[in-house]
Structure formats: C-alpha cells, structure tokens
Backbone:
C-alpha cells in the first residue's frame, strides 16, 4: 500500500511551482535543486549503491495479496525507478528542500510539504528502494542546500512570497489526476513491464 505514498516523489518536486510566487525565491530554489542534483550525481559516481537483491521479485509481489492496482503500480515503479544511485536518496533530499523552501514562502505550505516528506521517507523504506543509510545524508543534503542558497533570500515579506490556498489545492488536484491517469492505464490493461 505504501506505493501510494511513494508516488509523491514524482510530483512533490513540482510543489514550488504551485506555491512560490516570488521569482527571486523561486530562482534560489531552482539553484538549490541544481546543487542537490550535482552533489548527488557526484556521490552516485564515487559511491555507487544498489538495492538489487533487496527489492521484491515477482514471487514476493504475488505473495503480498494486495490490491491489483497497487501491485501494478509497484511493478511500474520498480521498472522505471532502477535500483541504482541510492546514496544519498535524491527523492528525499529533493522533498526536504521542497518542504523547507515552501515553508519559507508560507509556513503552512512547509508543514503540508513536511507531511508529504514524512510519507515519502516511510515509503522509500517500505517499497525497499532505499536503506536508512541513504536517507540520513539525503536529509542533510536537502537541508544544507536550503540553508546555503534559499534561506538567505531577503525578498519582500508577506503575501508576495507565496500563492494563496489555491496553489496547494491545484497541486493536490494535479497529483490526484496523475494517479487517476495511472488507474485508467491499469484498467485498460497496459502492462507495467517486467521487473
């Protein structure tokens, strides 16, 4: 069931598009993303880590007895998210950066993104895509990128930094529409592909 939580890793990186109004703050967030990506890619080359052998195979998935759509979604995820480049978790470092950055724009946006980050962290472990050792440095990397690049932003305070409540609502609609599109693909019988 945690594949539904894992699905947030694909859309949560777009949350600043829906929440951050200030162009200068948004630019800093984009630069911080670049830093997170650069450091992560360097780590992937220097210290390659794989979860191959840790992830479930077809037999283990069949034994789960879960909802067929969730099994289909897990198989799809395992196909498109290879068991490589794990240290640090780019998913978790990005969502950490998102939570801190959107919180800088508006406090409750950060709390909203923080809940998503917690769900993602748990699902990264339960889907068996990451080890705890991948996650702690990811939290540090996302926090460091925010502290070094986004936090020093000295833009206008108040409503100029963030969109109103419609931004997070539009994001939730976007995420739900993506899940619905996957459900339609499942109902149409599109194969998720081999593991």
Residues:
């Amino acid at each position: 069931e945690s594949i539904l939580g894992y699905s947030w890793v694909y859309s949560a990186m777009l949350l600043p598009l829906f929440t951050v109004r200030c162009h200068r703050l948004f630019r800093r967030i984009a630069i911080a993303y670049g830093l997170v990506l650069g450091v992560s890619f360097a780590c992937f080359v220097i210290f390659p880590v794989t979860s191959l052998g840790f992830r479930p195979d077809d037999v283990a998935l069949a034994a789960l007895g879960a909802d067929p759509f969730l099994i289909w979604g897990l198989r799809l995820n395992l196909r498109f998210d290879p068991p490589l480049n794990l240290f640090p978790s780019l998913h978790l470092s990005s969502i950490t950066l998102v939570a801190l950055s959107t919180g800088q724009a508006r406090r409750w946006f950060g709390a909203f993104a923080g809940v998503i980050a917690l769900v993602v962290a748990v699902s990264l472990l339960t889907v068996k895509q990451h080890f705890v050792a991948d996650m702690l440095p990811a939290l540090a990397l996302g926090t460091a990128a925010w502290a070094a690049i986004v936090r020093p932003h000295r833009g206008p305070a108040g409503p100029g930094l963030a969109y109103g409540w419609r931004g997070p609502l539009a994001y939730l609609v976007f995420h739900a529409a993506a899940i619905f599109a996957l459900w339609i693909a499942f109902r149409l019988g599109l194969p998720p592909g081999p593991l």
In short: Residues 149 and 164 are 24 Å apart (CA to CA). The mean pLDDT is 87. The first helix runs from residue 3 to 6. The chain has ten helices and no strands.
